[in-house]
Design goal:
By secondary structure, the chain is mainly alpha-helical. Helix content is 56%, strand content 4%. It starts with a helix and ends in a 13-residue tail after the last helix.
Length: 304
């Protein structure tokens, strides 16, 4: 089977599994890059390349070239994951008998701890919106839901009024893979939502609107957040996901159990949530080393 035909089958399968558009586009980009490389290695045109011509040596050579160009290990691992999914699909369908990626080892990744804001920084940011006007009230809702409920920015902008249960203090969000979950809303967020909706006179069912009266985009949320960060002069760059990280970190600091935080964040695997325990441990070490007199580094250059 030719590569183009196999790719069309695979992409159709991905969409049928309710993969996010970002994931499918990333898969397609990575696979197209690989098959252009494979065609060049085999001296063929990409459109005439058969998937059965790919072997483990071409895959390893591809990764070697990426590494030689200084591509980050995380990006290499993502491209390899796309290849694994693609060839596993072809083998499952009986199109290929041998998976050329099966014995290729994934690059080892260093565990990168997520960035978060301290409580004082969050409180400063939450006070930034001007609640005397409609857009300021909307911005207040954005911050209160990103931090107070730990929403992803995609979940936030996808909210409609019907997703809100203001009496119970709950909202229904659509997460990754179209997985639905119900999360609690803080009293601050509830008040912000009520104030915002009271100032609106339109019948639009979308919760967060831009100045044109249409659904707010993820990019607009990031731009709004940048303006608010500049307004309060926070020194570090803040993105919407950092508020989600802060939500999880502050919950664990406050004694919440890991399983509950996993449910609130909508993580499929507990390992995705466990990274926040590493974060809290690092903070404990930092506090300990700075505060305890026996933990401070002794300046050995001093003589008694």
């Amino acid at each position: 089977m030719l590569v183009d035909e196999a790719l069309n089958l695979f992409m159709g399968f991905q969409y049928s599994q309710n993969r996010s558009g970002h994931t499918v586009i990333a898969y397609q980009t990575d696979l197209n890059q690989f098959f252009r490389f494979a065609a060049n290695e085999l001296g063929q045109e990409p459109e005439s390349l058969g998937v059965d011509l790919v072997d483990i040596y071409i895959v390893r050579s591809f990764l070697g070239v990426l590494s030689g160009h200084g591509l980050a290990r995380k990006s290499m691992a993502r491209k390899l994951a796309a290849l694994r999914s693609f060839f596993k699909f072809l083998c499952h369908k009986g199109i290929l008998g041998i998976n050329p990626v099966q014995r290729v080892a994934s690059p080892k990744l260093g565990r990168k701890l997520p960035h978060f804001l301290y409580l004082e920084q969050v409180e400063t940011l939450l006070r930034a919106p001007d609640s005397s006007n409609l857009l300021g009230c909307r911005d207040k809702v954005i911050l209160e839901l990103l931090y107070g409920s730990g929403l992803r920015v995609s979940e936030l902008v996808g909210l409609n009024r019907e997703n809100l249960d203001l009496d119970s203090g709950l909202i229904r969000v659509l997460g990754k893979g179209s997985k639905e979950r119900v999360v609690p809303v803080t009293n601050y967020a509830l008040q912000a939502i009520k104030t915002y909706l009271q100032k609106r006179s339109d019948p639009n069912q979308v919760l967060l609107l831009n100045y044109q009266g249409t659904r707010l985009s993820e990019r607009s949320v990031r731009r709004i957040l940048d303006k608010l960060v500049t307004k309060v002069s926070l020194e570090q760059h803040v993105n919407p996901h950092m508020l989600r990280h802060s939500f999880a970190t502050h919950l664990l600091d406050g004694g919440a159990d890991l399983r509950s935080v996993q449910e609130l964040l909508g993580h499929k695997k507990l390992s995705s949530t466990q990274i926040y325990t590493h974060l809290t441990r690092e903070r404990l070490r930092e506090v300990f080393s700075q505060a305890h007199p026996r933990a401070k580094v002794v300046n050995k250059s001093k003589t008694p």
